[in-house]
């Protein structure tokens, strides 16, 4: 013998009309009125309405979760960038008299400290004792001239690196001009 709730549900579904009468304007255009949607929800009962609610909430939930993970990747990139720039600036500060191209030495340290970042996307700026150098190299002919000569004990060496960030969620970039920047200034040893 069937339970009473099951019998009521079958009777309710038998009385529900989920389709429009043939030949109505809404059937021809494919549009349904609010009253028709409400009647459909009523006929579906609790199981159907929770399914429809889930279908309405799911896209927003997926967008939120994907956005959180994208922001997490950007934050991870920023942490890698700041840590690698700190390592590169430290090496730059202690390389006085050891190299003819202190910028290239520092850049190599940055690349080694940030294996998760694409090397070709970095942009570097060096300020050695007040003189600015852009790019990955600042080669000198001797340790007393050019960039190597600007590494004066007690002077400052500043390294600035930029890296593009990508905040795309489902093909739409929510911050197209986003750039991560890290800068460290060290006292030359």
The SSE string, one letter per element, is HHHHEEHEEEE
Helical run tally: 5
Fraction of residues in helix: 40-55%
Q: Quickly give the structural class.
A: alpha+beta
Distance between the termini: 91 Å
* Major beta sheet summary: 4 strands, antiparallel
- Low-pLDDT parts are none
Number of strands: 6
The largest beta-sheet arranges its strands as 2-1-3-6
- What's the Cα radius of gyration? 32 Å
Mean of the pLDDT scores?
85
User: What general form does the structure show?
Assistant: rod-shaped
Strand content: 15-25%
Can you lay out the helices and strands and say which pair or pack?
Layout lengths: L3 H12 L9 H5 L4 H61 L7 H12 L9 E6 L2 E4 L11 H5 L5 E9 L3 E2 L2 E2 L5 E9 L2
Antiparallel strand pairs: 1-2, 1-3, 3-6, 4-5
Describe the structure.
By secondary structure, this protein is α+β, with helices and mostly antiparallel strands. It has a domain at 73-187. 50% of the residues lie in helices and 17% in strands. It contains five helices and six strands; from the N terminus they run ααααββαββββ. The protein is rod-shaped, with a radius of gyration of 32 Å.
Concise description?
The chain has helices spanning 4-15, 25-29, 34-94, 102-113, 146-150, and strands spanning 123-128, 131-134, 156-164, 168-169, 172-173, 179-187.
Key features of this structure:
single chain; 189 residues; alpha+beta; two-stranded antiparallel sheet; 50% helix
């Amino acid at each position: 013998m069937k339970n009473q709730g099951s019998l009521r549900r079958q009777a309710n579904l038998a009385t529900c009309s989920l389709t429009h009468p043939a030949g109505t304007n809404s059937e021809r255009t494919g549009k349904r009125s609010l009253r028709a949607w409400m009647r459909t929800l009523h006929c579906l009962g609790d199981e159907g309405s929770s399914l429809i609610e889930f279908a309405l909430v799911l896209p927003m939930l997926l967008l939120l979760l994907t956005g959180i993970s994208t922001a997490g990747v950007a934050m991870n990139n920023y942490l890698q960038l700041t840590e690698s720039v700190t390592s590169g600036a430290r090496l730059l500060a202690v390389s006085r008299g050891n190299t003819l191209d202190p910028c290239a030495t520092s850049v190599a340290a940055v690349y080694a400290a940030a294996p998760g970042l694409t090397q070709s996307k970095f942009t570097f700026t060096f300020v050695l004792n007040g003189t600015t150098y852009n790019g990955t190299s600042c080669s000198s002919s001797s340790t007393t001239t050019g960039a190597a000569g600007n590494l004066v004990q007690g002077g400052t060496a500043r390294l600035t690196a930029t890296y593009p960030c990508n905040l795309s969620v489902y093909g739409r970039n929510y911050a197209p001009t986003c750039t991560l920047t890290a800068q460290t200034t060290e006292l030359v040893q």
